[in-house]
Please model this.
Amino acid sequence: MPPRRLRICSLLLSLAAATAFARAGDLPFASSRIDEIIQRDLRQHKLVPNPPASDLQFIRRVYLDVIGRIPTAEELTKFQADRRKERRAKLIDELLASPGHESHMFNWLGD
Model:
């Protein structure tokens, strides 16, 4: 197996183990453990992470990934008006619970 693939497989296995062994219902613990694994891998390979995505980049990416389309102007305006610290996480939760996600997954898995 090429070194890059081996490194990616190792990282994915570490992430899977971190989430599998996380205490039930302890999302902050699991999240911090995953962050530690990623940071360790970045340091080990002398990589610099990209800066966080802007709100416009984030909303476009999350809509495309989760429900398979770009956000409408109304959805974008609603997101930009939301000033909660956890607005990104809330948007992801909303999209995952939406009929659009179900439809997108049905189409994706059906291909």
User: Anything to note?
Assistant: Helices lie at 3-20, 27-44, 55-67, 73-81, 87-96, 99-110. Residues 55-110 form one domain. The chain has two domains: 3-44, 55-110.
